[in-house]
Amino acid sequence: MSEEVRWEQMFPDQLEAAFAACPAVYFAYGLCEPHGPQNALGLDALKAHAILVQVAREHGGIVAPPDYWHIHELGGYAIWAAENVGEVRPWMTAMPPWMHFKNICYHLRAAEVLGFRAALLLTGHYGPNWRDLQTLCGLIQPYLRLQVYGLPDFEANKPGFPGDGASGDHAGKVETSLLWALRPECVDYSRMPAEPKLPLFAMGANAKEANREIGARMVADEVAWLGRKKEELLAAYDPEAPSRLRTFDQVEEFWAAEVKPRLAEFESMKQFRPDKDGPPEGSRWRENWQVGAWG
């Protein structure tokens, strides 16, 4: 199997050989958003994509191009941003849930048409969106032969950082350790202030406890877990199962029948901080806070 596993950087013969050896595809999702002064903005997708590249190299399969456009700026996400980012320029690549999740439907349609048998969808961006990803996978599975599973990266990393049982954080010791191990050029420990006055571009309060070596151990755990999950999906593949998501029209019909009627129930569409009244008046984060008719 070729060392190169990134779809967009492979030649046709490499793709065919990799597919023949292991017909599994991996999708990485994330967001450019504040992750403290010590981390590159694309931490979420950088992390997810790099983990999946290691999975493919060790366990087979092909890694789809990463998707850096994800959910933010509405509901509880906006409240979080007002508290943890403030009014500075945030450099976000945000989009609403209905666009993000419909894009995923089209990603899976492409994989179905190509004949993949297993798909792992890994989000490095947190909040309630990962629960909605799993809901979407449940809704779409009956339309696909392709076996799908969606998860946040911390599901594959339990108990997480040794000593405290953490399984995920935001630009703190867990995420900073993971990115440091995966893409060391995207972490600059010297940028962390000696005495941070939080919030500082959404830096986690315990970021100074980040450890590159422990990050590497967590990566190894996630790669092994995801490799096992991929094998489970391949084993569940049924070539006689219906394949009903092959055209653009079928995607739109699926969305209208199965997803749109339930969209208001998606956690990303709700005010998941009911104890808060929303971002302050005049805040940049108040503009999209209320979902409106879509909710």
Give the SSE map.
Layout (H helix, E strand, L loop, with lengths): L11 H10 L2 E6 L13 H17 L2 E2 L6 E2 L3 H10 L9 E2 L1 H18 L3 E6 L5 H12 L6 E6 L20 H10 L29 H25 L11 H12 L36
Parallel strand pairs: 1-2, 1-5, 3-4, 5-6
Order of adjacent strands in the largest pleated sheet: 2-1-5-6
**In terms of per-residue confidence, which ranges show pLDDT below 50 for 5 or more consecutive residues?**
none
Shape: globular
> What class, by secondary structure content?
alpha/beta
Distance between the termini: 46 Å
* Rg result: 19 Å
CATH architecture classification: 3-Layer(aba) Sandwich
Mean pLDDT: 93
CATH homologous superfamily grouping:
Creatininase
Instruction: Let me know the number of strands.
Output: 6
Tell me the strand percentage band: 5-15%
Could you estimate the helical fraction of the residues in percent? 25-40%
Major beta sheet, specifics? 4 strands, parallel
Q: If helices are DSSP runs of H or I spanning 4 or more residues, what is the number of helices? A: 8
* SSE string, helices as H and strands as E: HEHEEHEHEHEHHH
According to CATH, the fold-level topology is Rossmann fold
Classified by CATH, the class is Alpha Beta
Number of domains: 1
